[in-house]
Design a protein that fits this description.
Helix content is about 0%, strand content about 45%. The chain is mainly β and about 290 residues long. The longest helix is centred in the C-terminal third of the chain and has 5 residues.
Length: about 290
């Protein structure tokens, strides 16, 4: 069945050892090789488990398919709570455990089955799963103290979306979905932000070809780029467009080829580098105002 083990706050999952006709199969010996990370110093002492929970101790509803195929998974954690449970294929039956003691914090398994979960900066929990038709995704807002679902929101994921990605985004959550556009041979990106209680939301569909979203919770921005050709930056809490590189690129001399642009969210906002005949780096605050 498997177990969840927490070691000094780090959650690790262990698979059950393989067996052959009831006998354990030893792993093949690994030959010593040159250390690829010579600057990494080992811990002074071996960590000891803080607590262990067996999946067999979790009461899973009878309609959960193929109990033997379930495996332990941890989907989200902070300093006070660990959320996870037995996973079947892609969805996990959610339970919560005290991060210090391992004791169950919810009276029963949550009604919401999830693929991913995250805690917002204000301590609220949200989880996501794909719809049965794979054309939509459902966000569940879950009370971290009881496991009760306080609300759900459904968003479009495209006709053939890749799996949705849910991450903490300030006092809320950012969901990224993609749809492959065959005629243009690229992914169309959709960014959807929800406040931590689900009451407020914004959505942006960046121009075709944009990808690779990166955010700074402290800087209150999320940036997307078109692989060196263009970047856009949005305010996390409002969705306002605070920067678009189009005008800067038009005003950048480049005799050899089109200028290249990159963006990096930072603690105070974001930084933009443009390489044409010259190289420039400009730092902006969270409202898109340059420091210079």
């Amino acid at each position: 069945m498997g177990v969840l083990v927490v070691v000094a706050g780090l959650v690790v999952t262990f698979a059950v050892p393989r067996t052959l006709d009831g006998a354990a199969v030893a792993a093949a010996p690994v030959e010593a090789t040159e250390d690829p990370y010579p600057d990494v110093v080992p811990l002074a002492t071996t960590p000891t488990p803080r607590w262990t929970v067996s999946m067999s101790d979790i009461d899973v509803p009878a309609d959960t398919p193929d109990a033997k195929a379930r495996r332990p998974a941890v989907l989200a954690a902070n300093t006070s709570i660990v959320v996870g449970g037995p996973r079947q294929v892609t969805e996990t039956a959610l339970m919560a455990f005290d991060a210090k003691t391992g004791k169950k914090k919810w009276p029963k398994v949550s009604d919401f089955r999830a693929e991913e979960c995250a805690f917002s900066r204000d301590g609220r929990l949200a989880c996501i799963r794909r719809g049965a038709d794979r054309a939509t995704s459902e966000i569940g807002f879950i009370d971290a103290g009881s496991g009760q679902v306080t609300g759900t929101r459904t968003i479009a994921g495209g006709e053939n979306p890749t799996g949705p990605v849910l991450v903490s985004a300030g006092k809320g959550f950012l969901v990224t979905t993609k749809q492959f556009v065959h005629k243009d041979a690229h992914y169309a990106l959709t960014l959807t932000w929800f406040s931590s209680d689900g009451s407020r939301t914004w959505e942006h569909k960046p121009p075709p070809g944009f990808d690779d979203p990166a955010l700074s919770e402290a800087g209150n921005v999320v940036a997307v780029r078109d692989f060196g050709r263009r970047v856009q930056v949005y305010a996390l809490d409002s969705g306002d467009l605070v920067y678009d590189s189009t005008e800067d690129l038009k005003n950048t001399p480049s005799r050899i080829s089109s200028p290249l642009v990159e963006v990096a969210p930072v603690r105070t906002g974001f930084a933009v580098s443009i390489r044409g005949d010259a190289k420039t780096v400009t730092v902006y605050d969270s409202k898109g105002t340059s420091a210079g």
